[in-house]
Structures are given as structure tokens and as C-alpha cells.
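User: Predict the full complex structure for these chains.
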Amino acid sequence: MSDSKEKRVGLFEQEQSRRDFLKLSGKSAAGAFVALFLGSATTVFAKDGKEYRVWATPTGAIVHDPNRCVGCKRCEVACTVKNDGKASAYLSRIKVSRNQNFGVKGPSSAYAKADGQLGNFRIVAEVCRQCEKPACGNACPVGAIYTDAKTNARVVDANKCVGCGACARACAWHIPTVDVEAGVSTKCTTCGGDPACAKSCPTGAIRYLPFAEAEKFLWETDAVSGATA
Amino acid sequence: MANVYGYTGKILRVDLTTGQISIDDTLKYKDFIGGEGMAMKIMWDEVAPGTKAYDAANKIVFGTGPLCGTGVPCSGRTNITSLYPGSPFNGVTSSHMGGYFATELKYAGWDMIVIEGKAASPVWLRIEDEKVTIEDARWMWGKGIFDTQAMIASFMGKEAQAAAIGQAGENMVNLSVIRTGASHSAGGHGGVMGSKNLKAVGVRGSGSVKIAADPKEWAELDKFLMSIIGANNQQVVPTTPQPWAEFSDKTSRWTARKGLFWGAATPPVETGECDPKDPQTVGLRTQKAVFDLGAGAEKYTVRMGGCSHCPIRCHSQLNIPQLEKYGLDPYVANTCVGYSGPRGVMAYGIKEFDGHGADSSIVGNAIGTSLADDYGVWCNYAQIGRDVKYCYDKGVFKRVLSAEEYASIPWDKLVKGDATFLIDFYDRVAFKKGEFSHIADGSAWIAERWNLGDEYWDDKAGKLWTRGGYPVHHSNEAGAQVGALISCFSNRDSQNHSHMNFIGSKLPINIQKKIAGEIFGSPDALDAPSDYKPMNIYKARFAAWSLNRSILHNSLTLCNWMWPMSVSHIKENGYRGDTGLEAKFYSLATGFKMTEKQLDEAAARCFTLFRAITVRQMGNSDLRKNHDQTTKWITKADKDKDGKEIKQFTPGTIQMTEDDMAIARTMLYKEYGWDEKTGAPSRASLLKYGLGDVAEDLAKRGLLPA
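Assistant: Here is the predicted structure of the two-chain assembly.
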């Protein structure tokens, strides 16, 4: 599923996936004009005249452990108070509330034994995977999603965002969320590599891990965080 | 609307008779803080004296407060206020539930919901942000609370939270609950919803609660609180010696230690040392399953649960496969009396049954908890079990039940400790089958219906505190006259932990007395356990403070099972906590600056208004005589093993005396400025609290003391 085990080649000393690398080298790098802006997604104008966006690999990502989570949702308020100056569950970049009672799949006739507080008590939070090729960023019609200068986390430029929700729809896990009060989208910034959600967790169920390590939890068959791919 | 912080600024009003839905302004009630305080104002203004709990004219108020939803630790509770059918005079009471309903209501944009009238047929209330509709509940009616919540989430989406009644509430069983989530119950008002044909309230919110303060300032205060918070009930001493702890106490709720696990987690999670300096182990401190159900419950523990934004997880969530034998889900959760209440129905204990061996008690207890939580039956703070025992032992059931009905009840199971008795018991109670089911009318009503007389009220084993029909709840055993007084001023069990979160901290008594001295003016505010002294003014201050903080917490809304933070685990600070934290958080959240003293005065206003409602509802201003008296067992001297009386206020007894309690009442009345003869709010005290309109109303009715 993932390219995570493949060799990565740096781009501006940042790691990059093999497929991104091929886009630059094998297909079109020779004649490419590469427009690079520190702290943003990289726009590549290839030899074929098409425009590609290249995303530097994040330094880390957040992982949630359903086995340790107690569902207090202190992470959600820590996230939104820090980033938005207001407390909200819907807006939180780590998604506990929506899966809390009935799991990722929602209520069914088998709810009593399914995930969730109304079932087997298992609480599965969904987190932003800081995808190597972020569907959210690629779907944004105004280029409002860029990579943070410090962590390469995929973040929203609220000044550019038009609140259309394309990012939320493009994400397989619907992590980006349009703030209905502010009219702009939000998503996990990893708080500059020191995420408030992880710090606020009273059982150590949320960790911020180096990207390669996080990927193992987020994508592979033993994934414990969020819905597996 | 101008920017509003802490509050959402809106109260939802629903008239089920007319179907009218409207919006009210929260801030016009701001003097009453929120939750319970605001609900008391609404009940005073809008529910006429003489109204009965099940009348359409009664109102039920679901309330949150300005700290709910902000993320303040332990701020996820919902306060529910209405007339209580278990009260002999249908007095106003508040019930409370934890869980996640309250925060979702705030995020939907509502501080409170005020429901009145009666729907023509079963309905449920659907709240999705500002969109509010009254929905047909015909297919939900008759379902248990678990299925009802799943049905609501099926309609509204998996994010929705619901507060619902079970069959007991539908059938207007006086002792019934409103419940949310896996295990969060508000006892006593389920029947009020049933009387209104209201099955449930579902809510889903995509909004937020705004905080007035700078996020960094807010985070600093949160960090400070997290540095002094303890375990469940703010107990700050571990059960076993720990490297970081000066003291240990095996009765503490800080049960975490190396080798103690959430045994049914996959893989098991060790609770461990839980050094207070590590904020990421705060949620592991209380392994409540072993505290509530014994060591055998460790292996069934999936995790610890609790409420929104609370790092102290006090509900144990268990996987007990044996429950499937009885057609029950294996997953069961609860805490404290949520377990011991149903267990108490097995009045002669739970013995080995059905091959469950050493785990019989755990399995039997779980059967009761599962049934009570799904049917929505309340235990009247464990009183229902004591009432079963009394009525069985004294032959009351034999006297009042028909021979046919009596013979149909599996008494042999009750007596020999076979917990499958509970299956029969809860079926009769929830569906009001037969005369026996009146056991859930509440103690005051069965005393009248079954003519139980003084012997019943004054039975020490019965633990009834007043003729209001409710039992002890951290009463004379908890701080002598302090706890005793607190229990006298309620219309249900006192539900007050302000004092317990201090004196139950497990710190040595000399440290507690020192801190008590700093808060209440003298170490004499607190007596050592079973070494009581006569009443003094400092105990009155302690009792009034406890009453005020309870209604304050139910108004903010904070959990009174954790707050106030009077003590801490920090030796370097003399184990002091910070009693000013509520005011600091209130000021930062709302932008309305309030000192600790000002907030306590606002709470005293709310409590005085509650008192005035009780006067008006009873139609009698002599509360000293007609409301505040205890049953007689409390003031009767104990006897030693030789049959000799143990004199009160000597070591070894916790009994009170009539004379001392009379002095104690007077001192407490004085604390509030109430009339010292009757205990009713005086004109001066009402004016002092800005309740002049209440004084006028009471005066017109002849209920204002001269």
C-alpha cells in the first residue's frame, strides 16, 4: 500500500517518495522548471508542459492508540483552543467524537458488539496521516494547502482558503474540516511538531512520531490508529 | 448577537403541547450562573406552586454552564432540574449525568433546554445546531435506552449524543433515570420525561464554545489544575506505597500501581506508578473496577471511561462474557452506586450461582447494572435495596401483596443470593407489574401506601435521612455535623461531594485540619473520624461552603465528584489545593471577572432561591420543623458490645444529638441570613441576594417569616 519502505531521495534536503522522485527525474526533470518556495508545496512545470505539485515529506505525524484511549476528548479541546481560540469537537483535527459511540462505521444492528462506547468500548480516533501525496492539497482549487516550513505538515492558508470543502471531500478519512463559523477549512498542523492533542492526553494514547515510524502505525496491516487503509 | 464567551447565549424552549419551539437569552439569567442555578430561576418564575411532577405544567430543564464545553477538567456534566415525583410534596430537585451530552449541546449552540407541556403521542427532540424538530417516537417507545440511542444515531448520524428514558421512565416509575452514553444516569426525572411523552433528546453540534481569554493564559491555568488534580473524588493519596508519595491508604481511589492492569485491554494496559509529575498518566490513576467490584474485576476491565474533558476516568468498562448466558451484552460499564445500587437489591448478598464460582458477585452485579441501565430504573442512591430487605424481613410484602403475586416472586433466589432474581425484579419494576412494583415509588410513598410507620423511618439499617424519602449520602459519617447538615437541605439524597473531596482525600487528619483552618477559619471545622465534637461556627461555614459549591458546580457545570480542589498531592505546598480555581476559570472563559467570594455569593443566591421554591411548594415556611429534621436513628446513641450506651461526642461513635443538631441548623441558617426560627429565607436575606421579587411573592402567600 505504502511507499514508506522504499528509498527516498531528498528534495531540498527533505525526504521524498519514490514516485515523486520519478516525476522529477525519470519523466520530465531534464527540462523542468522547478518553482520552489520554502514552506509551500512545490509546483513543478514539467517538460510536457503540465503542472505538477510535489510535496516534501513531513517530519512526523500523529498516531492514536485505541487500546489506551479513554475517550475524554481533552485532545479535541486542546487542539481547537490552541489553534482556533475556541473549543469544538467538530472542528478538532483529531477526530474522536464522531467515532466515540459507534466506531468508525457508525450505528448498526450489531452496535452492541461493534466499536464504540455503546459497543465494545473501543474508541478509534482518526488523525491526519500527513499523506505523502495529500489528496486534500491536490484537490484545493486555490492552492491554499501548503507544507509548513518547519515540519512539512500539510496546512491550510486561511487567507487563501475559500471554504469550498473540496479538501474534506477529497480526503478518504474526511480529516480536513470546514469551520462553519469562520467559513474556512482547517486541518492538522501538528502544532509545529509539538501537538497539543498529544500533550493533553491523560493516558499517553496519542503520540507524535517521526514520519516513517508513524506510517507503520497509520498504514500497515497492524495499524492501530484510525481506519486502516 | 454580540460576542458571547463561555456561554452560547441561547436557551432552547420547547412546548410539547403546542409544538412551539423558541429561543431565549441565556445572559438575562446570568446572576444565576448557569445549569442548576438558572434552572431554579426558571422553575421559580414559571412553575406554579402545587404543580405535580407528572403534570404537563411541570417543566424539565436540561442545563449546562459556562465552563461546559471549554475543556476545563471535569466539566462534562448535564444538570437536570424539575419537580421530583419521589418527593412527598413533589419538591424541586436536580439530577445530574456525566457523559458527552452536555458538551454536544453547547457545540450545537445551546446552554440549556427548557421543556414544558405534553406531546399527544410519543416524540423525541432532534437538535442539529440551530435546527430543532419534534420527531415521531412511536418506534422508539418501548425500547431500552441502549437501542434508543442507536436509533437516534441512525437518524442523526454517528456523532449524535442522546439523553433517553427506558421503559421505566415511559411507565412513570418514580425511581427512574434519564441516561446518556454507556453508563451516565440522572436519577429521579425519567418519569417526568415519560409523563410528557418525550422519549429522548438527540443533539449534534458543529459549532464551538468561545473562550474570552488568551489561549496561552487559558492553557497555563489548565496546566496548573492538571498539576494539582488527584484521583477520583480528588483523593490524593495512593492505595499502595509509591516512590513519589509520602502516604498511602488502602481505601483510596488512587488505585494505580505496578502490576495492576486494565486486564481485558488488548494488550493489557498497566496502570503503573502514576507519578503525578507525568500528566500523561493522570487517566490511569483510578482503576475503578477493582475498587467497586473487587480484585476479580481486573481481568474483565477493558478500559476506564468517564465524561467529556475529564482526565479522571471513574467509570469502569468491562467485558464479562458470562452475561451472554442471560441474553445480555457482555459489555457493561458504571461506577460507584451505579454498581452498588443494583447489587443492593440482592439484600442478602450475592452468593455462588449458576456456576460462576468466585466471580458470582461480579457477574450478578453486572446483570443488575445492565438491566437497570437499559430499563432506566433508579435505585434512590441504593435505598431501593434496603427497602426490599426491610419489607421482606418485616413481612410487609406478605401483608400487602396478594397471595398469588407473593407466590409468583422467586424469593428463594433473593434469600440464597442467586442474582438471577434481578431479572425478575427489574421486569416487575420497569413495567409496573403488580403491587410489588410500588417499591420503586420511592420511600416516602411506600411508607404511606404500605403504612410502614415510625419503625421504618427510624430503622438504623434503613439509613433514611429525612421523611423526604431519601437516604444518607456522605452525611454524619462525613465530617460530623458538616455532612449531617448537608443532607438536611435537599429534596433527594444530597448529591454533595464538596466536603467529601476534601475530607475523603486520604491525607492525615492533622494536614486536613490545617487546611480546613485556612479555608474556614479554624481547624475545628473538621473533626477526626469517629471522634466528634459539638457544633461550632466553623463547621457551619464548612457546611454552607459545601452547599454553595455543589450548586455552583452544577451551575458552571463542573463535576462535584472532583471539584472543589481543596487539597492536592503536592507535599512542597503543604498538600494545599486551590479553592479559587472555579472563579479563575469562570473569569477567563466568560470575560466576566468574578472573585472566589463573588462566585460563592452567586451560588448562595441560587441555593436560597432553591430554598424559597421548597417553601412555596410545601406551602409552609417552617422548614426547620417540617423539612430539615432527620429521622431518629441518627440522634440515638449507639450501644457497645455490653449493651451500654456510647455517649455522643466521645470517641468511637458518629451519632448526633437532637440538641446539637438544633444548634447546627441555627448556625447554618445564620450563614445564609435566613430566619433562625424557621430556616426559611427572610426578607433581608432575599434582598441581600437580589431576590426582592421572591420576597414579595412569598409575603403575598404568607410564607415570609415575620
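The radius of gyration of chain A is 18 Å.
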